Amino acid sequence: MAQGGRTDGNQNRMMRPRHYRASLLFFALLCAMSRLAAQDYPVKPVRILVGFAAGSATDMAARMLVPRLNESLGQPVIVENRPGAGGVIAIEAIAKAPPDGYTLLMSAASITIQPAMRTKLTFDVLRDFSPVSLVVTGPYVLVVHPSVPARSTKDLVALARSKPGALNYASSGVGSSPHFAGELFNALAKVKTAHVPYKGSPEAALAVAKGEADFNFPSITGGRPLIEAGRVRPIAISTAKRTALMPDMPTLHESGVPGYDRSGWYGLIGPVGLPKDVLNKLNAAIAKGVNTPEMKTAFFKQGLEPETNTPEQFADLIRREVDQNEKLARAAGIAKE
User: Fold this and answer.
1) Among candidates 136, 140, 67, 108, which has minimal Cα distance to 296?
2) Which of 167, 210, 229, 242 is most buried, by the most CB atoms less than 10 A from its CB?
3) C-beta separation of 228 from 246 below 8 A
4) How far is the C-alpha of 98 from the C-alpha of 58, rounded, in Å?
5) How far, in Å, CA of 213 to CA of 169, rounded?
6) What pLDDT score does 27 carry?
7) For the whole model, what pTM was predicted?
8) DSSP of 53-117, one letter per residue?
9) Residue 15's pLDDT band (boundaries 50, 70, 90)?
């Protein structure tokens, strides 16, 4: 019996290396198949989810990009609208999607505000996604009602400091990007102005035009008709650098609020764990499609500027904005839902 036991033990020891080699071989085969799949990507249609309704700025950015991706990827790229909860429904769907590159999200900058506004998110903005690339940015333009005695950023800052809490600004709602643009102005200019939320961007813009609010930060597209009609006065651009969309307009950074840099942006993200080959192929397809004279002209007409970057740069942008928005929310006393 003892001898038989020793024989069984020897057999087990002899079998373990074979099992180990088989496991290694299986693992190597899986890796090779994964690399091959990434190299062949895509072999079927790609979906881009949009967390807002058809016709929204996010939807428009996605649909303008799609024909270029069709050309570069050689497969149909389909836009699927999943509106609701301020874009959260689509974001949740991406967080749960397989990391294979076939389900992506056209994200708006508002994704970086979610952690500052909600206590029970089912996703972590910094952990659960693979940023692919920016697509476009949309600068805001700081406008005031003509009755406001401010013709420059320095004038507006001086006026706000002389009357703490007296001035107010309109936005498209609590937790919106223009809301946080206003709070960033308060923080960096060291002033106190009151926030007045409206149901949407058109309503906020009209509030300033009517004199119900003193200033706001509309998109260039949203603000331009009122500017051209003389119903509001533009005094600065929100981005750190001047924009070709309004080349003569100074930035807040250069004209009274150093460090101010804020814009709406739209970019493509996927679930965490996208294979690097897939990530790089998508990034290259976006850069190739967006950075053409035709696309630049098309985006300019919509008040947007093409701007692509690397996945690492896009991830850094998202990380900075999440951190900034959480600090702004705390400083402004904005309660989380």
Assistant:
1) 136
2) 167
3) no
4) 23
5) 6
6) 52
7) 0.84
8) -TTSHHHHHHHHHHHHHHHHHSS-EEEEE---GGGHHHHHHHHHS-SSSSEEEEEEGGGGTHHHH
9) very low
Rounded to 10 degrees, the C-alpha dihedral 12/16/22/26 comes to 120
Categorize the per-residue pLDDT at 26 as very low, low, confident or very high, splitting at 50, 70 and 90: low
Give residue-wise pLDDT tens across range 197-220: 999 999 999 999 999 999 999 999
Q: Average pLDDT of the chain?
A: 90
pLDDT at 142 over 50: yes
Q: Is the Cβ–Cβ distance between 218 and 140 less than 8 Å?
A: yes
DSSP character string of 265-301: EEEEEEETT--HHHHHHHHHHHHHHHSSHHHHHHHHH
Q: Which domains does the chain show, CATH number per domain? A: 46-137+264-332 (3.40.190.150), 141-237 (3.40.190.10)
Measured over the CA atoms of residue 288, residue 289, residue 290 and residue 293, the dihedral's sign is positive
Separation of alpha carbons 309 and 19, rounded Å:
46
Which residue type, as a one-letter code, is found at position 175? G
Tens of pLDDT, residues 265-298: 999 999 999 999 999 999 999 999 999 999 999 9
Strand order in the sheet with 194-197: 194-197, 168-171, 215-216, 141-144, 233-237
For residue 136, count other CB atoms closer than 10 A to its CB.
26
Count the Cβ atoms, other than its own, within 10 Å of residue 122: 11
The secondary structure of 316-328 as a DSSP string is HHHHHHHHHHHHH
Is the separation of the CB atoms in 122 and 224 below 8 Å? no
Structure tokens at 41: 């990507």
